[in-house]
Each structure stands twice: as structure tokens, then as C-alpha cells.
Amino acid sequence: LQSLSVRFAMFQSLEAESLAPTACTTIEEVGSTGVGALTVAFLILLVSTIVFIARAGSAGETKQYYFCSIYICGFATLAYFAMLSGQGWTAIAGCRQFFYIRYLDYAITMPLIILQLGLVAGCDAPTIATTIGGEIVSVFTAYMGAVSVVTTVKWFWFVISLFALVFVLFGLAKSFKEASNARGGEVASLYGQLGALIIVVMILYPFVWLFSEGFASFSVSFEVCAYAVLDIIAKAIFSFVVMSGNDVLASGNTNKEYV
User: Fold this and answer.
1) What is the pTM of this model?
2) 185-209 and 125-147 helices, crossing angle to 10°
């Protein structure tokens, strides 16, 4: 048994070495199209952050929503600036450029997006915290899958990430929705728009992962473009939809306080 375990360990070591990026003579890096997508996403997120900062001062009872939006778009702006500057990346199996800074961004901004949804819906703190925990697990395991050099390990991490994501989606679709219904029709309608937007985007992220960090079917530039579109929707557009419901959220806060 010991001999078999040693041989299996040697086999895994040889497989990892054969896939390791250090064996690459050239690395597939982001091209001009990808750089253009990074630039557009950076500018949109930067302008969005500035707009939310400017509006936060006069937001009154809804300041917390603006603060969330500022940090959501602000952290994403910093991540895109890093990618544009040639920072926050390494080579992974398949000799591809891998922007690990993106996962640091997701580990911060995705929980903030869930917090924002929880505030809109009027969820209790334990429900929000539990859903955020599931999202952190999903992001962490997706990152581990992306940097894995052994194929079986990569897909093991990906499956765990999907299970965690399903848990998050269930919370957003059920627990958060029920809380928003308790706040009234207009708030429930606003949450319905926001929740549907984020649920669709969260479902699309693993598909991009599958054909980029997973099967490496997408070019690095196409991968960057796909993630940029999803990030703009999940962060900038999402935050502007929240801002458009400022009056609804203000009245919802008043009703919650005095009823």
C-alpha cells in the first residue's frame, strides 16, 4: 500500500510538472481587444464611483446604499487599473495569463453586492451573513480551481464552487425575496429587478470560467472581454438601478421605522 501511494504521489507530481507554467516558453497574454475592454470597464467603473460619491452627500436616509455602491465600484476600479497596469497576474497551466487580482476583487465586491441586496430587501443580519459566507466560498474555490495544475483537482474545486453558488442563488431567490415582499410592493418590485439582474449574472460567471480557466477554449482577450461585460452589469448598472430607486428606498425606510 505504501508503494502504491508513493507511485500515485509521483504520478501526480509528474502530471503537475508537465502542466506547470514554468515549462512554458511563451505565454498567451491579453491582446489589444482585451486591453480595450479593460480600459472601457475601468472608465465606466471610475465614473460610476465618482457619481456615487457626489450623490452620497445629499442621499439622506439612503446613504448606506450609496456607500455600498461606492465601495463596489471603487474596488472594481482599482482591480481594473491593476490589470491595465500589467499587475495582478501570473501564468497558469496551459501557458495562459491569469489575472488573480480579479478574484481579490470578487472576494470583496460580491459580498458587498449581497449586502446591498440584503439592505434593499430588509433581510435580517444572519441571513445576509450566511449568504455572504456562501459567496466567499464560491469565489475562493473558483480561484483554487483556476490555479490548479492537476485536472482532477481543478474540477473538484469547480464543483464545490458551483454548490456554494447554488446555495447563494437559493438565498437570493427565496429568503431575500420573502423579506422584500414584507417591505411592500414598490420595494419588492425594486428588489425583483435587482435580484433577477444579479442572479442572471452570477449564473453566467461560471460559464465564462468553464471556457477560460476551465477548458481554456476562450482566448485570454475574449475571457477579459466577457468578464468585463459581466462586471459592468453586476457593479455599475446594478448600482445605478439601486440609485434609481432612491425614493422607494427612502419611503421604505420610513415605513419600517414608524410602522
Assistant:
1) 0.89
2) 10
